[in-house]
Design goal:
about 325 residues, Rossmann fold, five-stranded parallel sheet, globular, binds flavin-adenine dinucleotide, transport, flavoprotein, electron transport, flavin adenine dinucleotide binding, electron transfer activity
Length: about 325
């Protein structure tokens, strides 16, 4: 393989029901930094049906080029069909790097494409940089239970691929005056490319605000002692703040709240404006998912709890007394 032939850092832009996922913008921002370092371009690959109008949004967030695969057959995500489209893109355009969001779809699609193209993929990265000597991407991710950060490279094959968790990088500001190229691509799919059939979409999580997209998260840990405070006290505080309820793994493992709400290394990475940690000790695996929050407020009865080392505001006290008072005070303040 002549590595010099492969050019461009490409973000697989993920959209759902006609709306681009935030992670696509976050990856464009970081992709642009990587591309600038290696003297390359950053682009996006947009797949779906009636998605072409979204291309301009990608350009506003940093894409120099957007390759669009717009076809009725691509209306719903399909593992094998979307993989085929990306393999076709690779064979035609010869990209150097593919950045994929570590979402449900990205985690399904990325490895499938990497396997088809006989290249490597680093999953669930929390950092991206460039190796000074070889100008290859250095993919950083936690390893050995989060105790070390591993740096992984893909020196001999292309594309260099990785999935990156939502909320690891900040979304760049949109520049409405930015210009770029939008390129219509030919979709070449047959029935044989669809190994599964879309039947029905069943949305989980009750349709509330998702923690990965929430501006405010009120999270509860083992000290909440049951499911009732999640449904009552924590939900009420989250609601007055216009946010969502999160949880530590201890609370999820105890069956008090669904795993969709888990924050941390094996849960979601979140980046809200405010993160309220209630009766959560602050284990490293929990911190791995929430230290990107702008402001962390911790409520814990143990003044030595590790969460107090990472918080901006700490309240030493019993959550069952502090949270209702906080909710009351915010309600009063809002009138
Ligand atoms: P604890 O550590 O038991 O802390 C409970 C806290 O509540 C204590 O600090 C206590 O002082 C306080 N408290 C109790 N009662 C009250 C009260 N009335 N008022 C105020 N404070 C009170 N964990 C995650 O969260 N997310 C992950 O994704 C995750 N992934 C993991 C992956 C691996 C491979 C491993 C090994 C572990 C993982 N964990 C994860 C588990 C993690 O190590 C901790 O066990 C977990 O985060 C602890 O949850 P906790 O803080 O709720 O419970």
């Amino acid at each position: 393989m002549d590595l010099a032939e492969y050019k461009g850092v490409y973000v697989i832009a993920e959209q759902f029901e006609g709306k681009l996922r935030n992670v696509s913008f976050e990856l464009l921002g970081q992709g642009r930094k990587l591309a600038d370092t290696i003297g390359d371009e950053v682009g996006a690959v947009l797949i779906g049906h009636n998605v072409k109008p979204l291309a301009q949004e990608l350009i506003a967030h940093g894409a120099h080029k957007v390759y669009v695969y717009d076809d009725p057959q691509l209306e719903q995500y399909n593992t094998t069909a979307y993989s085929k489209v990306l393999c076709d893109f690779f064979n035609e355009i010869k990209p150097n790097v593919f950045l994929v969001g570590a979402t449900n779809i990205g985690r399904d699609l990325g490895p499938r494409v990497a396997n088809s193209l006989k290249t490597g993929l680093t999953a669930d990265c929390t950092g991206l940089s460039v190796d000074d000597d070889k100008k290859t991407i250095v993919w950083t991710r936690p390893a050995l239970g989060g105790n070390i950060m591993a740096e992984i490279i893909c020196p001999d094959n292309r594309p260099q691929m990785g999935t990156v968790r939502p909320n690891v990088f900040k979304k760049p500001e949109a520049d409405a005056s930015a210009t770029g190229e939008i390129i219509d691509m030919k979709v070449d799919l047959t029935d044989a490319d669809f190994l599964t059939k879309f039947v029905e979409l069943i949305k989980m999580g009750g349709g509330g605000i998702k923690i990965e997209e929430a501006d405010v998260i009120v999270s509860g840990g083992r000290g909440m002692n049951g499911s009732e405070p999640f449904e009552g006290m924590l939900k009420e505080l989250a609601t007055v703040l216009g946010g969502a309820v999160g949880a530590s793994r201890a609370a999820v493992d105890a069956g008090w709240i669904d795993a969709l709400h888990q924050v941390g290394q094996t849960g979601k990475t979140v980046g809200p404006k405010i993160y309220v940690a209630c009766a959560i000790s602050g284990a490293i695996q929990h911190l791995a998912g929430m230290t990107g929050s702008d402001c962390i407020i911790a409520i814990n009865k143990d003044e030595d709890a590790p969460i107090f080392k990472v918080c901006d505001y700490g309240i030493v006290g019993d959550v069952f007394q502090v949270v209702p008072k906080l909710t009351e005070a915010i309600k009063k303040h809002k009138g």
